[in-house]
Predict the structure.
Amino acid sequence: MKFQFTLASIIFFFLLGKAICQTYPGTMINISGGTFTMGNNNPPFMFDDQGPEHLVTINDFTLGETEVSNANYVIFLNDMASLENLVIEEGVPGDWSSDSTEIANGHAWSIMADSTLSGLWSGEVLIKLSDIAGGGQHPLNRCWIEFDTTSYIFSVVEGYENWPASWVNWYGAMMYADYYGLSLPTEAEWEYAARAGQQLEYPTNDGNLSYSQANYGTGFGGPSGETYLSPVGELFPPNPFGLYNMAGNVSEWCLDWYDANFYQTCIDNNNNLNPLNDITPEDVEVKVLRGGSHTYPGPFAMSSHRLDTPPFVTTDHMGFRVASRTQQLNSKKELQLPEIINFYQNYPNPFNPITSFGYDLPEDEFVNITIYDMIGRKVKTLVNSSQTAGYKSVQWNATNDRNEPVSAGVYLYSIEAGDFRQTKKMVLLK
């Protein structure tokens, strides 16, 4: 079954959408930018794509307080249907129940964008209302969005309005975000928000992970032994930035193409400001997902953990939240150099046992960065060499020039780069 469309309606949609932005029905959280250590040099076994750790600077942006809910996604679908921009194809009902009365009429449909639309989503499936991957899953893993063949209206099964929109692929998430003049977060923005200015190991209220803090691992010995979603923003506390369900529930689509070596590429190319991997892979085309899910065990919910999945895939454990920004992202294709020299406060501070120093070089310079104790004795030389322009970082592991551990206390660190001189304080805890 296909909606009829006209060129006039398509033109009207895009003109209206760009001139008068639709109001996003959810809540956005303002996040102040900053510099943080992205990645993990000591990830759990087999998660070796989380390194190397590197400093990343993020500009101010906003991020959805929660994942996009079924109720909010239905608003979008009905708007698209009214603009005649959807193709609705009958499919095979899912197998979440042996009782045919449990299989609602609306669940046997695949919803896709009309192939005449321009954009990354052109002709792509947005959401599947019937699929149960692999079969035999719990009835609560079904999609709760229904389609009425008589009225051509989408609705949510009563009681599941506030569950996260799942069975939405990357294209469906992108089209939704664009409709509201928004975007998906980059994986750097997502991790920055997850760590919440405290370098949190897990994106929870205190950086730890338990079944009272997140919906995760129910398929791997969780508290109930069942595997299904939970309402957004209700059962678990937010992280310190006020963001709910960053750990567990659904894995969240990011803007980036996945590249296991992207972190090293950023280091090599001095791409440390708002990095984005927008280069389509030459082999397996997969997008980044973050945050674990209700089915995956705890390590998948780490702030640093990276998942990768083809953008056309839909499952019950994948969803998304939206973002917005005013500053330009830096891709692998277009790298920007800093305009002035900056030397940032170390992070974290206080620290134990490793801290990072970020600095910006607008031009090639000979750079010296040295650690001193409070009476001015040299402790460690971190950098003493010519360096090319770009966004730089270096770490200190609380050892002296002889690689011996130093005692706790207050230390000074200074930089010399051309005519630039600056000294700051930091605190080592033991």
